[in-house]
Fold this protein.
Amino acid sequence: MRFGTVRLGTPVVLAPMAGVTNPPFRRLCRESGEAGLDAGDVVPAANGELVGPSGLYVTEMITSRALVERTPVTMKMIEPDVGDPVRSIQLYGVDPATVAAAVRILVGEDRADHIDLNFGCPAPKVTRKGGGAALPWKRDLFEAIVQGAVVAAGDVPVTVKMRMGIDDAHMTYLDAGRIAKNAGVAAVALHARTAAQHYSGDARWEAISRLKNELGDDIPVLGNGDIWSAEDALEMMERTGCDGVVIGRGCQGRPWLFTDVVSAFHGRSVRVRPTLGEVAAAMQRHAELMSEHFEDELKGVRELRKHVAWYLKGYRVGGDSRHDLARVSSLEELTELLGALDLEQPFPDDAEGRRGRGGGEKTPRLPDGWLESPCLSQSERERIEAAELDVSGG
């Protein structure tokens, strides 16, 4: 699969996840994906193209205003995963001029090989400003942002990630897909849920199929939502006709899911089923990589805390041990706590399946009057610009 000058040897993408897909986690996922490859799967680059043999591994969402302001937190967030052949960054923004300025920084300073635009985030703090999954409802604003980013990026491919719409009464994905295609994006990814669904219920894969049929073969369409196993990835490809898959919550606490998926896409049956000892080793390395990345051991192990429940899902680990691991404050303490577990435990049957928070449907938080028209009013345009200035810090 190709994104302009970028070629993916395997059509799989790590979804941007706030607070999760920092360089250490991306490295773990990429290395796991590479473990699913055989030597014959890797085709050398040609004609100046960049190749991601095991797929594409995208940063967490970067706020365009914060990037333009060069806040220290944001500049740290765009640091690449050491060894990744394709530097992929996702941008969020609500003002076309600011998004274009952020793209020019990334391209002009040679900081990215691929840029993804976020139109899928359902978080209230994003949608209440008119961003994320709320933004494609305003077609003129969506078009201006996408066109501006594509022009600013030049030869660097720009892609779009979006949801089906705000809710069932305000679907946007087919119109947004057509606008993105006409603007010259290199690919479109669809999380087959609405903003109202958040992460609840089932992803509606039939929407991915409709989008692919609408856009045709001129542009890749990637599917996202409810890929918990390699078999799910293969089924999505078969059922929807999509060109690739985007994996989000399914890899939380399971970077080795990329081994499974990459292996499956290359026709092999390799599946990683780690013992608790192997999971503990992965947790230890994850913490060490984050301590190194942040140049702060305490911050590194604190960042691991959110991953603990994901890593231990399905394994027999007592409440006291889980509690202590979720409060770990040093690498030495982590080593001791992990060493005290029953590390011989085999892979549990219920370790696969749904992960992360599901919850129920939620009424999306939107700017006042947002749904009254699919075009921006002058007052909304002024509020959008103010919202962009209001957001900083990555």
